[in-house]
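FAQ

Q: What does a record look like?
A: Structure on top, sequence underneath. For example:
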C-alpha cells in the first residue's frame, strides 16, 4: 500500500477497479493511475471543490467544513454500494496516522488465498479472482 494512492477524499485508489486495470494494462483507455498521479481529483469532488483544486488541503479532514455535504453524499454512495466509508478512512488516518492506516488496509484487503489485492468495487482478488466478503 502506498500513501500516494490515498486520495484527498479518503479513497484508497489501490483498491479501485480502474487503478487495478491500469496496473494490468497501463495503455488502455478508461484506466486510472490514481487521484494524485496526474492531479486527477476523481469523481464528485474533482471539479466541485475549489479547496481541492487549489491544493489548499491535502486531505479533506484538514478542511474546516469536513465532512461537507458533497463528501457526505459520495461517502453514502460508497457505503451503500461497496461497504466502504471514505470519511471513516479519513478519521482513522487523522487519529492514527498514515503508516497505521496503510498497515490496516494491507491486512483488510489482502486476498487470503494468494496475497493479492482485493478490489473494493468487485470484491474479487485482482490476482487470482477469488471472491471475498471479509475485506468489504
Ligand atoms: S478512478 Fe478515482 S478512485 Fe479510481 S484510481 Fe482513479 S482517482 Fe482513484
Ligand atoms: S471536505 Fe472540504 S476540501 Fe473536502 S470536498 Fe468538502 S469542502 Fe472540499
Ligand atoms: Zn488472490
Amino acid at each position: 500500500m502506498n500513501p500516494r494512492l490515498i486520495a484527498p477524499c479518503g479513497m484508497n485508489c489501490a483498491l479501485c477497479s480502474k487503478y487495478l486495470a491500469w496496473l494490468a494494462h497501463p495503455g488502455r483507455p478508461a484506466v486510472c493511475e490514481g487521484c494524485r498521479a496526474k492531479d486527477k481529483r476523481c469523481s464528485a469532488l474533482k471539479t466541485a471543490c475549489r479547496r481541492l483544486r487549489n491544493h489548499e488541503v491535502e486531505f479533506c479532514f484538514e478542511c474546516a467544513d469536513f465532512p461537507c455535504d458533497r463528501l457526505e453524499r459520495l461517502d453514502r454512495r460508497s457505503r451503500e454500494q461497496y461497504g466502504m466509508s471514505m470519511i471513516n478512512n479519513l478519521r482513522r488516518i487523522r487519529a492514527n496516522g498514515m503508516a497505521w492506516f496503510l498497515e490496516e488496509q494491507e491486512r483488510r484487503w489482502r486476498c487470503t488465498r494468494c496475497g493479492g489485492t482485493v478490489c473494493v468495487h468487485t470484491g474479487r482478488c485482482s490476482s487470482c479472482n477469488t471472491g471475498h466478503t471479509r475485506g468489504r
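Q: Is there anything notable about this one?
A: The longest helix spans residues 69-82.
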